[in-house]
Amino acid sequence: MTQVIRHEVPIAIRALKTANIYEINNDRHILVDTGMSPGSLDFLLGKGVDFTHIEMVILTHLHVDHIGGAQAIRDRYGIPIAIGTNDALRIKKIQEDRDGFGKFLSAELSANGTPLDLLSRIVDRHSVLDNMSLYHDIELDRELKGGEKIGRDIEIISNPGHSPGSISIHIPDRNYLFTGDHLLPGITPNISFYDEESDMLGLYIESLKETLKLHAEEIYPGHRDPFTNGNGRILEILNHHLERLNEIVSATGEWSSAFEVASRIKWSRGRTLDSMNLMEMNFAIGEAISHLRHLYSLGLVEKREKSGISTFKSSGQALKAL
Ligand SMILES: [Zn+2]
Predict the structure, then answer these.
(1) Mean pLDDT, the chain, as a whole number?
(2) How far apart are CA 119 and CA 298, in angstroms?
């Protein structure tokens, strides 16, 4: 029998307001995700969480609003931290090359047509660079792979896309699924870029299709309330990406950079790029990049470099289904 306890911790991201931390108790005692700052530890103590029986902290992915309290918990209670293999690699890379992430981000935004003055402001406010000490300090004890089991009743599912090493935690006996940001209610998870060429949206679409096969009974997301009919939500998200891909096909009738595409399309709630704050702009440009890369991998846009900037052009052929 599995017991789930949810704690909704406030976070400093305006659009989200809170993040979920879960205790899973069955034959094992696991904490899933840790909010955005070391202050999550005091928050959880204030809620009466008994850390003495928790055996492991599992982080669903490497974003700051999920990893923020992990090291404080490890420091105080010696509880090991586990995360998906590809996200562990990414964090190690940030730790080994302290200037590398900022350089990579600047180069990639620049190569996708972001004007230099805007680019430097976006990089300054990026959540990784803004919270670098959390990434430098965190000590990862275990890397988790898809298919791995923890105890009798906890199974790790690999679902790359929202990040390279995103994982969900599946409880087969109840068919519960803790999805991190792989699946969220009411918000489409951000799909961006983590290197110069990977098709993150393609990975995400495949991960969503894999998740459909589980027919999960109850979804415990990284933000907002748990929900049922996860498959209905997956179909909505797939449809959202199909519509956005086709909008981008229409927006690339002439050779265009990802930044120009991001400036041209209507974002959620009818917003435009210039009405966004810097973090939202970073998300929007990242979304344009991931959608263009996916269209490119499908052969629906051509790509060419022009003065160091990647530009894309479609033949106008729409995508019928994902
Ligand atoms: Zn995330």
Answers:
(1) 96
(2) 29
